[in-house]
Amino acid sequence: MTDTIGGLAVTDLAREFGTPLYVYDADVLRERYRQLREVLHPEVGILFSLKANPNVSICAVLRSLGAGAEVSSLAELLIAGRAGVAAEDTIFLGPGKSAQEIDACLATGVHAIVCESWGELAEIDALAARRDTVARVVLRINPSFTVKGSRLTMSGKPRQFGIDEEQALEAAPRVAGLRNVRLIGVHVYMGTRILAEEVAAENTTRILDLAERVAERLGFELETVDVGGGLGVAYFDGERDLDLRRLADLVNPAFAAFRARHPRTRLFTELGRFLTAESGTYLVRVRQVKESMGEWFAVTDGGTHHHMAAVGVGSFVKRDFPIRLLGREATEPAPNWRVTGLLCTPNDTLSTHTPLPPLRPGDLLGVLRSGAYGPSASPVLFLSHGHPAEVLVDAGRPYLIRDRDRPADIVDRQRLYERAPEVPSASIP
Ligand SMILES: *Cc1c(COP(=O)(O)O)cnc(C)c1O
Questions:
Q1: Which residues are modified to N6-(pyridoxal phosphate)lysine (predicted)?
Q2: Does residue 115 carry a catalytic annotation?
Q3: Which CATH architecture is the domain 86-271 placed in?
């Protein structure tokens, strides 16, 4: 039996840790980072966007290779710190930061707070004044342009993210009076799941140009430019992974030209999905196999409460993540298996037409490329099932990096209010 993750048999992993289970391969995680690091302009720092996978051990592996962190909540800030990411290599971003979060940024000394609105800029100024400090602030800009080709466009339209380019260019009087804010840079994030090298390159060129214009008009020194990222991985039929060599050939000249004009500016790209997706497998076990009106269903012990991305929201026709039968030899695949979870909703469909061998209860299925936007981007409390366990395989050993939620973990968070009606004991048999 040859189905392994990081050299360990999936059957053993499932037996030891139970299912449903996320398994990450540390080698794949490192390989993805290194492949990009090798070809990317050496002066461009890579920040890991914890949003894609907030596990502290995943973050620690990436940090050990030199990644910084891009965080968007107090918990993510703490996780990055616990993973060993230095505050100077961390940026904090998000359209609705709390005063507590801004204050934590000031207290820990993050490299920059990425500011997303004028109101927030005033708030950062006030909070920094209270601490008698000067906040290092990067302005997130919502550019007037949009570059087609990302799957979820975050700019060039009315957005809660960032400050409109036109407003930023006219903001010199507004920022002049800020005593406790020092503008140090520009951030733009164009969108996610970019799979075309040209699109990434055009984004980069235009963002670098925009950063120069904003800094010049507002009269500050560009210490930092974050060109976003949003590099994708192929999930679906007809998609192909980015050619990193080609990507680098297209973006590096733009970075080099920029560095020639601004030799001291720190450049960053921030990536979540690209770094973690391929390393993760969502391992589920088939509970029931049934036929309904001519279609074959495999009902598993997992579901979209752990893997919402597999639902394929936003696609006209549902597109399926790659799913494989793991852990036993099998005969020819038959077309069009529907793989579902155990939730009580028809939307709980991991795949609608995956060719799989004849399945039987007890079989293990792996949803591949699932290391990004898994449980943290899914309704894990649906049916009160909770978060699945997560295991990292490194150097041939499995490490439990996230405990499975137990029913008690969920029930104990709830409170039965004092005036709750008494239950006659007879009603419970
Ligand atoms: C979500 C997000 C990221 C990470 O996006 P990926 O597509 O996972 O790389 C980076 N930056 C910002 C601002 C984001 O909102």
A1: 51
A2: no
A3: Alpha-Beta Barrel (3.20)
pLDDT band at 148 (very low <50, low <70, confident <90, very high): low
Residue intervals of the chain classified under CATH 3.20.20.10 are 86-271
Crossing angle, helix 56-64 and helix 26-39, to 10 degrees? 40
- Gap from CA of 48 to ligand 1 centroid (Å): 9
The candidate with the shortest Cα–Cα distance to 124, out of 91, 100, 160, is 100
> 13 CA distance to ligand 1 centroid (A)?
31
Residues contacting ligand 1 via CB (< 6 Å): 49, 51-52, 70, 93, 189, 192, 228-230, 270-274, 372
40 versus 335: the higher-pLDDT residue is 40
Split at pLDDT 50, 70, 90, the class of 219 is very high
What one-character DSSP code corresponds to residue 19? S
Residue limits of CATH 2.40.37.10 in the chain? 278-411
State the pairing for strand pair 334-340/349-356. antiparallel
Number of H helices, E strands in the chain: 12, 22
Place of tokens 């707070």: 113
CATH topology of domain 278-411: Lyase, Ornithine Decarboxylase; Chain A, domain 1 (2.40.37)
How many C-beta atoms lie closer than 10 Å to residue 99's C-beta?
A: 12
Residues 349-382: tens digit of each pLDDT: 999 989 999 999 999 999 999 999 999 999 999 9
Nearest residue (by CA) to ligand 1, atom 1, is 51
- Give the DSSP letter string of 357-417: PPP-TT-EEEE-S-SSSSGGGS-TTGGG--PPEEEEEETTEEEEEEPPPPHHHHHTTS---
What is the CA(230)–ligand 1 centre distance, in A? 6
Q: What is the pLDDT of residues 303-343, one digit of tens each?
A: 999 999 998 755 567 789 999 999 998 888 877 899 999 99
Judged on CB neighbours under 10 Å (0-12, 13-18, 19+), 339 is buried
Distance from the CA of 94 to the center of ligand 1, in angstroms? 11
- CB-based contacts of 411: which residues, under 8 Å, 6+ apart? 384
Of 260, 273, 277, 253, nearest to 40 (Cα)? 253
- The residue whose two tokens read 């107090």 is 74
- Give the position, in ligand 1's atom list, of the atom nearest the Cα of 52: 8
Checking if the pLDDT of 42 tops 80, the result is yes
Cβ distance 92 to 204 under 8 Å? no
Q: Which atom of ligand 1 is nearest to the CA of 193?
A: 7
